[in-house]
Amino acid sequence: MEVKYKQEFDDLLSYVHQATLWHLWGALIRGALRGMSTRQKLEIMKRFFAYAISKNTILEYDNEAQCAVFSGDRPEVVAERILADFPIDKLPEYDVEPESDFFIYAIQKQNGWVGLLEGTFLTHPG
Predict the structure, then answer these.
(1) Element (H or E) spanning 6, and its range?
(2) What is the rounded end-to-end Cα distance, in angstroms, of the chain?
(3) Ordered alpha helix ranges (H), 21-121
(4) Residue 122 banded pLDDT, cuts 50, 70, 90
(5) Which of 22, 47, 78, 106 is 20 to 30 A distant from 37 in Cα terms?
(6) Average pLDDT of 41-62?
(7) Which CATH architecture has domain 6-118?
(8) Closest by alpha carbon to 87, among 99, 100, 105, 112?
(9) What angle do CA 75, 41, 88 make, to 5 degrees?
């Protein structure tokens, strides 16, 4: 897996277990993602999730069964699945952050993933 934003990704890994998608998105925006389209930003977020999965910092999670999912799929596939409900078609091409649809999604996105703290403790986003 190519990691174009390794420094930004590594910086986020230290607090991913206590962050919402809104926090993670904002941290990347302030750094590497300024000026990119919403679709480009989403692709970077998917890369971050894949990176965090490969580092055992984010796990796929089934909220209904209340358990981690170990599918054996590549991190990129799992990241795609976790963010499959992203409302891309309801959002503007640029400057998505002030949009209420995005804010509501990003602050409430607590399904599909959990953080793994110190390799032993699952933490829900936010």
Answers:
(1) helix 6-13
(2) 27
(3) 21-28, 38-54, 75-82, 100-108
(4) low
(5) 78
(6) 93
(7) Orthogonal Bundle (1.10)
(8) 105
(9) 90
